[in-house]
Amino acid sequence: MKIIIAEHYDELCKLSAVIIKEQIQAKKDAVLGLPTGSTPVGLYKQLISYYQAGEIDFSKVTTFNLDEYAGLSPSHPQSYNHFMHEQLFRHINMQSSHIHIPQGNNPQLEAECKVYEELIRQAGGIDVQILGIGANGHIGFNEPGSDFEDRTRVVKLSESTIQANARFFGGDPVLVPRLAVSMGIKTIMEFSKHIVLLASGEEKADAIQKMAEGPVTADVPASILQQHNHVTIIADQKAAQKLREASYS
Ligand code: F6R
């Protein structure tokens, strides 16, 4: 696990954008795994500026998002589908048929999960999987206690995640869906060739310390990344402040 400590959020965004740019330059039809949330917003802005400067061509790129709220239509303003189009896809030259986000309002949600898993397999896996991390150590919507063998499935959001995500629903936790579709931990671990986890801010400091230096445990789902052979953690100084090893760059 390589840990890079960025001086601040902007540097974190640039470092992660360069990883994606180099991946697409090396392989035009790269497959990317993408998160939503606050952390990747600056990364997506940076990718848009690379595209506008002619440094990245997204026309052959394929993407798979990590998760989506259950019950929200793709056009719902708080859906992850809507978020991704606003923050990234509508600004770049992705082909819409190459964009994959679980359809949260599919009445056959279990079947949706199986098909999603199969689509990732057929794409040949994910070249670069970007992850955020919850303050409780979750990745995707794999909350503490999730099984490391889990595949894409319907999940129940933890109370702390509902509270954390209420900010996207006008601050009202009652409006946050209780269920979501999420790639499972096994999906992420098995299909991702390179995992890049981003963390910004002191509210992530405990999770980053436990993930990188604590035991591998279902109580901290991100800790499983210690067992993946190609992981890069990019944390800003606030998120990295509780790491105890001195040797991180
Ligand atoms: C979102 C996702 C979540 C977030 C995590 C951090 O697609 O999978 O695991 O990455 O909750 O969210 P932010 O970046 O908002 O702190």
Automatic annotation (TrEMBL):
<dbReference type="GO" id="GO:0005975">
    <property type="term" value="P:carbohydrate metabolic process"/>
</dbReference>
<dbReference type="GO" id="GO:0019262">
    <property type="term" value="P:N-acetylneuraminate catabolic process"/>
</dbReference>
<dbReference type="InterPro" id="IPR018321">
    <property type="entry name" value="Glucosamine6P_isomerase_CS"/>
</dbReference>
<feature type="active site" description="For ring-opening step">
    <location>
        <position position="136"/>
    </location>
</feature>
<feature type="active site" description="Proton acceptor; for enolization step">
    <location>
        <position position="67"/>
    </location>
</feature>
<comment type="function">
    <text>Catalyzes the reversible isomerization-deamination of glucosamine 6-phosphate (GlcN6P) to form fructose 6-phosphate (Fru6P) and ammonium ion.</text>
</comment>
<dbReference type="GO" id="GO:0006046">
    <property type="term" value="P:N-acetylglucosamine catabolic process"/>
</dbReference>
<keyword id="KW-0378">Hydrolase</keyword>
<dbReference type="InterPro" id="IPR004547">
    <property type="entry name" value="Glucosamine6P_isomerase"/>
</dbReference>
<feature type="active site" description="For ring-opening step">
    <location>
        <position position="143"/>
    </location>
</feature>
<dbReference type="Pfam" id="PF01182">
    <property type="entry name" value="Glucosamine_iso"/>
</dbReference>
<dbReference type="GO" id="GO:0006043">
    <property type="term" value="P:glucosamine catabolic process"/>
</dbReference>
<dbReference type="GO" id="GO:0005737">
    <property type="term" value="C:cytoplasm"/>
</dbReference>
<dbReference type="GO" id="GO:0042802">
    <property type="term" value="F:identical protein binding"/>
</dbReference>
<feature type="active site" description="Proton acceptor; for ring-opening step">
    <location>
        <position position="138"/>
    </location>
</feature>
<dbReference type="InterPro" id="IPR037171">
    <property type="entry name" value="NagB/RpiA_transferase-like"/>
</dbReference>
<protein>
    <recommendedName>
        <fullName>Glucosamine-6-phosphate deaminase</fullName>
        <ecNumber>3.5.99.6</ecNumber>
    </recommendedName>
</protein>
<dbReference type="GO" id="GO:0004342">
    <property type="term" value="F:glucosamine-6-phosphate deaminase activity"/>
</dbReference>
<dbReference type="InterPro" id="IPR006148">
    <property type="entry name" value="Glc/Gal-6P_isomerase"/>
</dbReference>
<keyword id="KW-0119">Carbohydrate metabolism</keyword>
<feature type="domain" description="Glucosamine/galactosamine-6-phosphate isomerase">
    <location>
        <begin position="9"/>
        <end position="230"/>
    </location>
</feature>
<comment type="pathway">
    <text>Amino-sugar metabolism; N-acetylneuraminate degradation; D-fructose 6-phosphate from N-acetylneuraminate: step 5/5.</text>
</comment>
<comment type="similarity">
    <text>Belongs to the glucosamine/galactosamine-6-phosphate isomerase family. NagB subfamily.</text>
</comment>
